[in-house]
Design goal:
342 residues, alpha/beta, five-stranded mixed sheet, two-stranded antiparallel sheet, 12 helices, 27% helix, flat, HET, HET-domain-containing protein
């Protein structure tokens, strides 16, 4: 099956609800779907796949119970998909992603070219060509929910503003595309992790302390994206947390791991006012010591998590507990938490 990663762009008028579930089970009229969903189905057909997973249709949107359960399945949905269709260029579900592109991105290669040249005698040099074209971020690259969808997916066909590009977890080489590729693959994931590294992490081939450090990088990359609702701060990264939890075998505490709790508490925000959740619309249900309680981009101080490092912490953790919002989703939101230090 294919999985779709896309921007909602506001409230969805076409979605599965408790009222529409029975009718949708019988039939969904494709012509009535928003253009992005129609395009995704068209791509799925052309890839010779019979099934596609779309969150607005596969989750009962007015059922808190079903949403909580499905959020807990996100890691499985995207990591087990044959391919993820990324509607990267579409700002909203009605926009579609198979329309014509501007010629700018097709005609002008936005990458460094090194051309050999004769300097005189037998000396050779290089002429470096670097067009001053700044493409910026596509809509999908700014959204919080799509962060883990991209990292967890083994294969992605990415429909961007300037190109369509295919990336695969098993390849670190150049990703084939229908235009000019402007970035190495590893830069497309926002947290400094390419898909091969993520695959190695999930397979457990990295030491625990390295895993804890990578987690902080993931959180920093994730929080640099936008969420419509502050309460989604933890649920939107729950799939990634579950993957790490299966490897670390550690307690997950409102976005932190018990084994690396002290260094992960050393978080900050470049915008001081974002650290005041109740004043800026942050998540008031999350304990204030968690990075998830604040809005905006979170950065971590670069103290080593290696126990052999000379850095030591004067503080010690006596007790730390959190209570999940839904016990079926241990890596999702929390409704309370306590931390006692000495």
């Amino acid at each position: 099956y294919a999985a779709l990663s896309y921007c909602w762009g506001g409230s969805q008028t076409f979605k599965t609800t408790t009222r529409s579930l029975s009718g949708y089970t019988e039939k969904i009229n494709i012509d009535n779907l928003p253009q992005t969903l129609q395009d995704a189905i068209f791509v799925t057909w052309n890839l010779d796949l019979r099934y596609i997973w779309i969150d607005a249709l596969c989750i009962i949107q007015d059922s808190d119970s079903d949403k909580a359960f499905e959020i807990g399945q996100m890691a499985r949905v995207y990591s087990n998909a044959t391919i993820t269709i990324a509607a990267t260029r579409a700002k909203a579900v009605w926009g579609g992603f198979l329309g014509e592109r501007t010629m700018l991105g097709l005609e002008c290669p936005n990458r460094v070219f090194s051309l050999p040249c004769q300097l005189g005698g037998e000396d050779l040099g290089n002429i470096i060509l670097l067009p001053s074209i700044h493409e910026g971020l596509d809509p999908l690259d700014t959204r919080g929910w799509t962060f883990q969808e991209r990292i967890l997916s083994p294969r992605i066909i990415d429909f961007g503003t300037f190109r369509t590009q295919y990336t695969c977890q098993n390849s670190l080489g150049e990703a084939p595309c229908d235009g000019w590729s402007s970035q190495p693959i590893e830069q497309a994931y926002g947290a400094g992790l390419n898909s091969r590294v993520m695959s190695d992490l999930i397979s457990g081939s990295y030491p625990t302390q390295d895993m804890l450090s990578y987690w902080l990088g993931i959180v920093s990359g994730f929080t640099n994206r936008v969420l419509s609702f502050p309460s989604d701060r933890l649920p939107a990264i729950a799939g990634m947390a579950e993957c790490f939890g299966l490897i670390l075998k550690d307690d997950y505490l409102a976005g932190h791991w018990r084994a690396g709790l002290l260094p992960s508490l050393l978080w900050s925000n470049p915008r001081l006012m974002d650290l005041l959740p109740r004043a800026t619309g942050g998540n008031v249900d999350v304990p204030s010591w968690s990075w998830a309680s604040a809005s905006g981009h979170i950065i971590f101080h670069s103290f080593s998590t290696n126990p052999d490092d000379t850095t030591y912490f004067a503080a010690g953790v006596i007790e730390c507990t959190t209570e999940p919002t839904d016990m079926r989703v241990p890596y999702g939101g929390v409704k309370q938490g306590e931390l006692l230090l000495q």
